[in-house]
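Annex B. Sample input.
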Amino acid sequence: MRLTLAGASPGGLWASLGEGVSGAIAKAFPGSSVSYQTSGGGFANIGLITSGKVEMGIAHGAEVKMALAGDEPFKAPVKDLYALAYMYNWGAHQFVMREEFAKKHGITTLQDLADKKPPVRLAVNPRGNVSETINRKVLAAYGITYKDIESWGGQVVFQASGEMVNLMRDRRIDLFGNSLFAPHAAILEVANALPVVLLPLSPSVIEKVSQETGADPYTIQAGTYTWQDRSIPTVALGAMVLIRKEMSEVEVYDITKALVENIDVIRGAQKTLKALTPEFLASQKIVPYHPGAARYYREKGLLK
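Annex B, continued. Sample output.
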């Protein structure tokens, strides 16, 4: 097999996923290769797949749901999307606030933010990033807009993950929201520089945001960070491998079989993938599985 998998930036988690998928297929079919192609991320990958430029691509479930609905950045509902495998759903959305700011304004939850309207300086990812969408949806569920924050005397800053860390460390922002595995090195770095707290989401907000975006309810267990003494309910992004609808059922069946039977290769590509199971590969419900994948999963009792 000669396949191309569109991911995101080189060196990140999705590059590791690409390495694992390539390794699993090569083990099942010696001499095969899966070329990892960098891209702008899940939104771009959906376009690459539907236009036939690549055979496979990684996308967050939230991005897939937005594509199906025709939400921005898509101009119309995207049709004929098929999943190959669900890869993770534990990219926890973490709202990190400077402890000094939280104590000064009596903030322990995002509801407090809505009620007390402090002049908070908030950092979110650049527009077009799915994590920025999650931030916007969460705030909207609390009745907060970016303009509201500015009207309180606060500020909304659009920055990439790495710059959020620098801004918080330098005390130029008070809060950031980002979808990251927990514990994450970026948050550990911030916490080493100054005291911080995590803000939980309410059950009703979790339910609303999950329904709107396809994100999953998630709990960051107490003690995940040494300074975290309570469990933090939130939502988490999941990601799946999508596959071109034009690929034959037989070929996709074989690829799916390769992933399941060599799942240890995928788990070994990145420590955060160690929890991956065959059952999980077949567990997403946002978009149909390709007929070839569905046939294999059903034969193995993984999909009803």
